[in-house]
Amino acid sequence: MTMAREAYITGIGMSEVGVRLVRSPLGLTMDAIREAVSDAGLTLDQIDGVSTYPGKMQTFLGFSPIGVDDVIETCGLKTRWHSGAAEATAQLGAIADAAAAVRSGNARHVLCFRTVYEAAAMARPEQFPPLERRKDVTGNSQWVSPFGAFSAACWTAQFAMRHMKQYGMTREQLAQVAINDHRNAALNPRAMVKEPLTIEKYLDARMISTPFCLYDCDRFTDASTVVIVSAGDALDEVTSTPIRIAASAGSVDRYSWDQAEWAAAYPTGRDLWKNTDYTVDDLDTVQLYDGFSFQPITWLEGLGVCGVGEGHRFIEGGTRIALDGELPMNTGGGQLGWGRLHGFGYAYESVVQLRGDGGARQIKGDPTLAVATSGGGPMAAALLLARD
User: CA 167, CA 301: separation in Å to the nearest integer?
Assistant: First the structure.
């Protein structure tokens, strides 16, 4: 009875990951779907739920070009439950929602996906119009556009600068996130980055928004990532090694990003441990959102790996977070090395590591517990994943 009420990740899939790909976003999504369904040992006829974040955005198709309706129609699915909207904690909230659906009996196998097409969209604006730049500003843009701060790099940099001023973080310490990501990505055949990054090259790179340089920021990417979430009483239908969703958490503080005092990684990280008997000491690996290099530092602190204001010292030198370190981080390269998969790549990589399928990037020992996170500003979501 207990197992039947659990939720498991049973299939993972990913399309080609690249920049300015000519494949359509729906084609990339279908590639990832086919791979995930095959990985789980299922057929499309067995999929009865679909979940995504943030849903299809007609005003910003490069950011999110595919909705649940596209997947349902193209795959010919007969669904009993589906969800897709930006009104969620963060990207991985779509997987947490799917877990709730299978636990409640509303679905047995839910296909969760995130498709991004930002690089290709920039190359073909006639097909994928960019956000309209208006002479007047309304809504959230009124707080950022008049100050030239349209990019999230500007918003996140303010959190990072506070850590520098208040806690003494240096750029050399911050660099270890990007260096670790590039080193791991070079071992990942699906990652965009193929070469390690040196501290000299990092420090010589052009600045984007202080303290972030070029290597602190992820890049626009074209890709689709799929995760299948199955009910515990449906595991007899799958052939893969299931990974249990042991806990989830999420929080939002000001969708507008306007003057949020702390990143949502802090309350989300604390709440994650309230929903499980596991503790932070049980973790074998962490896959932490790194749209910008500072964000994993907030997650390390929020999860309790180290104290608030101590994250930069925890990663100093890079040995603790390396593949052979005490807490391997972003083993596939993260978004700075693998590509901007927008959150779903962390769940994908957690499953790869817990199954022991990492190849050259597989961490040592026999990992059984991982955390995957998404979000880096005033909204966040986290999953605790276990191989029982």
Answer: 13
